[in-house]
Every structure is written in structure tokens, then in C-alpha cells.
Amino acid sequence: MTVLSIQSLSMRFDQPGGVAVQALKDVSLDLRQGELMSVLGPSGCGKTTLLNILAGFLAPTSGSVTLGGKPVTGPGAERGMVFQQGALFEWMSVRENVGFGPRMKGMPKAELREIVDHLLDTMGLKDFKEKAVYELSGGMQQRVALARCLANDPDVILMDEPLGALDALTREKMQGLVLRLWKETGKTIVLITHSVEEALLLGERLVVMAPRPGRIHREYRLPFAEMGAGQDLRGIKKHPEFARTREEILGMIWDMEEEIMGRVEAG
Amino acid sequence: MDLIRQLAGETWLVLTTVAGVIPWLILYVLLILLCYFIWRQISRLFRPRSDFGSLKTVTFGDESAVTSDFAASVMSLVLIFLLWGAFTGSKLVPSFLHAPGPFTGDGTFTYISEGPDGAMDEGNVTVRVFPFGTKAEVPVVDPGPGFAKDDALVVAAYRSELLKAQDNDEVTEDAGAKVVSVNGVAIEPEGPAVDVGFASVNMTAKGTLNVTPDKGWQMEKIWLPAPEDVWARFVEISRDGFRNSTLAEHLGYSLFRVIVGFLLGAVIGIPLGYAMGLSDWFRGWFDPIVEFMRPVPPLALIPLVIIWAGIGEVGKIVLLFLAALWIMAIAARAGVSGVRIAKVHAAYSLGASKPQILRHVIIPNSLPEIFTGARVAMGVCWGTVVAAELVAAEKGAGMMIMTASKFQNTDIVIMGIILIGGIGFSIDLLMRWAERVMVPWKGKA
User: Fold this and answer.
1) B191 and B261 share a domain?
2) Listed residue (A34, A56, A117, A48) closest to A83, CA to CA
3) For chain B, what is the domain count?
4) Is residue B53 part of a domain?
């Protein structure tokens, strides 16, 4: 069942001086319920623009986004966002951060407390509930951000390089957590990343985008997310199929970068 | 061109004054370094340190390794106090530390008078110098032989006195006698002064001797009173009040004006700043006003405020309101602009409404900036209220020191300055404490 439908989305920014930037051109995608899709591409391919349109922070110049049949016209609680970093509220404790969405909707305190407690327990933040967020490490802060998003029970979760600012070890642990949460909650997730390995691990569906104009270059269906939800991720990374796909996509992105450089040098 | 020449002249004057101060500055720096080396040796003896900071080998250039040395602060204040005491002859400072005081007691010198016929005679002068504020008898001297009789003179310390040396002589000035030398050094009208050991003697245009006892290095009370005098004055004024008002009233009125003016400024300025940070229209509307009013020093508004609102409380509070208003508006605007867009986006994605985002994201996010602004505004307000009271007020700390200065009550002026500084410093400490309690996340984002 299609839950999120993106139809021939285009985005043009007019710049001072009359030069227009075609950030997105004719992007169409359909996401079914419970799908985990990762979006990968070189910088400038419009993947963040795409996510901002899905979240409702930007209005496309043409095309449409519908969620469960209803057009997206602005930000809303049914589309949760997880940002790279710095989106937590420092003036609130971990508990208050996680409970923010339901609290704004006026959920009764007891129910709110139960939801937040449960989420924080499953996230391994049991002993940090009353701490200030700036007292936590980067990895823990991203766990809080994930929990805050889940507490609001959105239909779709949009992740904008959520693990991009973490160190390699923490990042690997968090990738496992994202997969586990995806399996447990069955949420539809769109994840943007610039790490090929992460895109392969955290996408049963992988979209590679190309720049100038931003467009969908290729799509893959991948088995690794399904495999990774149960077993250790390093085992999957050793899989020959994993290595082959990684090299293929890396080569593809290298070629795009080369082409841009060539065009810049020629122009 | 005239202006440039005048300014060049003024600049030269300033530069020469500064050049005169430089040796003293160098001396002061040497004293600081001396204290440093002595204290380092002492502290090494008593507490070998091994915390992380002291184990760093690179401290020069590492800002985090530089902390305020408490011992240095204490020594700095003690030194100021010692200097103050030493140059005012304070009883609180041991007398061997005193700078040389003014000469007091009896001294003598001789002069030679030349009669109209060319005859010379020597006269002795006994000078009694008494400390300022006491009384002294004219010393009794024997007139002695010759036509120039011996004289006696009393002078207060720091003052000078004309000596009518020949009034009692057998050949007076009117008869053609004139003084030609003092202690064997020739002297002439308006010529250089002669040093007689305890005083300098010069001659006026009319030929009269003028005796100025040595003033020493200590300051006269009228320039700088001793610490204990200032303390005594403080005790007296806190007991009896000053100009029909108690000390608490003077300080209380100043504080009251600052607090009311600041609060009004904050109550109007913060919403104004939020409006400017959240709406194109409001920013466009108020930008020219705020940007123009911000660089106008509040002190420059005093005349206008006095014309419009008089010298009563309303005028002062209006002035302080204006002083705080722009600072608070700009701080609130900066606080709104400083919010990370990811936080606002996150709040929208969590389903928050605009009022909820204002209440739960924008306002808390701007609090650190607002506290910084409040500290600046309180400092400016406190400075402005004192200045406004200097101009016109019935009560207040500024009025107190201005009135005292008109009567040359320097001790009250110094006491007032110390109180004003202390209160300003306390206000800042209080604001910093409030900031720590209310905005613990400041600088941790």
C-alpha cells in the first residue's frame, strides 16, 4: 500500500543575477507502508531539498507530495524529522525533549510518562531520563532525537543524515539501533546519507541521485537491511554481494563527481 | 586650520603628561613582577601543585590554562590601599611606609638687608609650621643687634605666608632698605626661589619675601583624604545622613530609578525585539528607529528629558527606560535570530503550533542573549543614573558626590565613588548568578 507518493517533483531556485538553479527535476517515487528507503548522492544532488519538501519546509515549484492521499502543504506531526545534530532543546531534560510532541498535543501526564519511560528504556537511556541533553554524548543525543520522533508516533520518519556527526564506532552501533527500531515499529522511513555503506545497510530500497539537475539516477532493491535487523552488521559488510554493490555505487558517484569537475574546468 | 593647530597643541599637552606618568607605570609593573616572583617562591614552598592545569607545559597562549590568580587580586587591592595610606599619612599604614609628609615645626633662615646708604645687616627669621587644622603661637624672638631685626612667622603646612621682614627693622622698606640675599644666596623680585632646607623662599614683585614650607609627597586632605577619614565620614553619614536624607535614601533612590527604568525598558524592549526578529514588517518599521537611537548615548538625552519631564523621578525613569530599551530590544532580536533553524523545524515536525514554538523554543532559546543584554543594560543604567543625578537631583548617589564636591568634601566624594562602584559590581554579580541559575545551558549547545 502506497503511503507516501511523490509525483514529478521539480524545484528551481531563482538566484540574484538571473541564474536559476535546478535543484530537483521531475522526481517521482512511491513509498509503501513500512518501507525503509535510503537516498544517496554527491553533494548538490538535491537530496536535502527533497527531504525538506517531504517535511513541508519547502514548497516545490511543480509536482506534488501526498501522504495517505492528503497533499503535503506544510510541516506536520505525521511526518517526523531526525536531524544531524543540534535540534534538541537544551533547556529541557531528556524526558521533556522526548515528550515534547505529545505534550504539545495535550496528552495526559500519566500516559505521556508511560510512553516516554518505555521509549527511553528501549533506547538504553534508562539512567539518563532527568539529565540535561548537553550532558550526554553525541550518540546518546541522537538516541534522544530518535526517541523524540518516535514518541510522536508519526506515519513517516524523515532522517537527514542522522548519524553524520558521530564517530565511526558509535555510528555502527546506531545503525543497528535504527534497523532494530524499523523492524520493531514498522515505520516508513526515508533516510538521507552521504555514506555508501550506511545507505546499503539502512535501505531495503536505495535511491542514487545525480546532480545538475537533481534527479533520480538509479534505484536498487537490497537484501541487507532485512538481514541486518537480526544479525551483526559487520558480518553483512563482509558479504561479497555487499562489497560488489558498494564498489558499483562508489564508482557511479565518482563518475558523477568527475563529470562535475570536468564541466567546471571546461566551463 | 586653527582647529587643527589647537588640537595639535592639546595633543602635545596630553603626550607630555603621559610621558611624565610612564616612569611611574614602569615602576608599578616592576612591583607587580616583584610580587609575582616572591609569591611564586613562597607558594612553591608551601603547596607543590600537581593538578591538570599546573602540569601543562604550554600555558602561554593557552587561554584555558589562564585563570585569575586569587593571591594576585588580593595583593593588588592591598597595594592600592597601601599606596593610598602611604600618600595620605594614614594611621592604618605603619609610619615607615609613609611618603615624606609636609614639614612641620620650627626652622630658621637669615636674610641680608641693604640700607639706602649701602650698609648691610643680617636678620634671622624663625618660621613655625603647624599642621593644617591646628593652631600655633607666634614664636617669641629677641630682636638682636643691627638695624635689621630678627623676625618670626607662622605658616600652616601646605600654605605659604608673606614675611614683612623689614616692618620691625630700624630702616624700613619705605626708607629704602631692601633684602638682597637669603641664606647667602642673592634674591631678586620675581627671581628664582631659594631653598632654605625646610622651605623655599622667593621674592614678590614688590620685594616682599614669601615663605613656602616643603610640602613633602603626601596629599593634602582636600585632594585625597586618608582611608580612615573616608571611613569616619561613611560612619557619620550613615548615622546622620547627608543633606536631609539618610545614606540609605540616597542609594535607595538611585537603585529604585535603575530598577524601575530597567524593568520598563525590558518589558517594552523584549517584545519589541521579538517582533523585530519574527516579522519582516516590524523589523523594517523599527530598524531605522532602533539603529538610530542605539548609538545615542543616554547621557546626551539628559537635557531633553529635563526640558520635557523636569528633574523629578519621571524624567530620570524615562531616561533609564530609554537607556535600557534599545539594548534589550537588540538583545531579544539577536536571541531570536540565533535560534538554530533545526530546532524550529523539529518543533514544527513534532506538531507544535506557532504560539507553542514561541513559548517553548524561541523564548527559551533567546534567554542567554537576553541575560547578556540585561547585564549590559543594568551597567549602562547604573552609570546613567549617577550621571543624571550629577546634573540635577534632590536625592541620589550622584547628587551626594556632586554636592560634596562643591564644598570640597573630598572624603564624601571618594566614599560615594566606592559605594557606587561596589553597588555596580554587586548588581553584575547578581545578574551573573541569576544567569547561571536560569540559563544553565548557556554556551553548551
Assistant:
1) no
2) A48
3) 3
4) no
- Give me the domain span that covers residue B318: 228-438
Q: pLDDT, tens digit, for every residue of A227-237?
A: 876 667 888 88
* pLDDT exceeds 60 at position A267: no
Question: Is there a domain that residue B258 lies in?
Answer: yes
Of A84, A86, A105, the CB nearest to B351: A105
Shared domain check, B253 and B392: yes
Q: How far is B431 from chain A (nearest CA, A)?
A: 19
Cis peptide preceding A213, ω within 30 of 0:
yes
The answer on B141 and B120 residing in a single domain is yes
Quick one: pLDDT at residue A236?
Answer: 85
CATH, residue B381: 1.10.3720.10
Please tell me the distance from the alpha carbon of residue A12 to that of residue A20, in angstroms, as a whole number.
6
State whether B345 and A83 contact (CB < 8 Å).
yes
Residue A149: list chain B partners with CB under 8 A.
349-350
Please give the DSSP secondary-structure letter assigned to residue A126: G
pLDDT recorded at residue B69? 87
Task: Name the one residue in this structure whose C-alpha cell is 548557556.
Answer: B442
* pLDDT for A163 beyond 60: yes
Cβ neighbours of residue A38 closer than 8 Å, sequence gap 6 or more: A190, A191, A192, A193, A198, A199, A200, A202, A203, A205, A206, A207
User: What ipTM, to 2 d.p.?
Assistant: 0.92
Q: Nine-digit cell at A49?
A: 531539498
- Residue B9 belongs to a domain: yes
Residue B359 at interface with chain A, using a CB cutoff of 8 Å: no
The reported pLDDT for the residue numbered B49 is 65
Verify that B364 and B267 share a domain, yes or no. yes
Residue found under cell 627669621:
B125
End of a domain among B173, B188, B213?
Answer: B213
Residue B49: DSSP 8-state: -
Cβ-defined contact of A132 to B351 (cutoff 8 Å): no
Q: Average pLDDT over chain A, rounded to whole?
A: 89
Distance from CA of B340 to the nearest CA of A (A): 7
H helices of chain A, in order, are 47-55, 94-98, 100-105, 109-122, 138-151, 168-185, 196-201, 224-228, 233-238, 240-266
Model-wide pTM > 0.90 = no
Please indicate, yes or no, if residue B363 is contained in any of the structural domains: yes
Q: Do B364 and A91 touch (CB under 8 A)?
A: yes
According to the model, what pLDDT value does residue B343 have? 94
| B374 in the same domain as B248 | yes
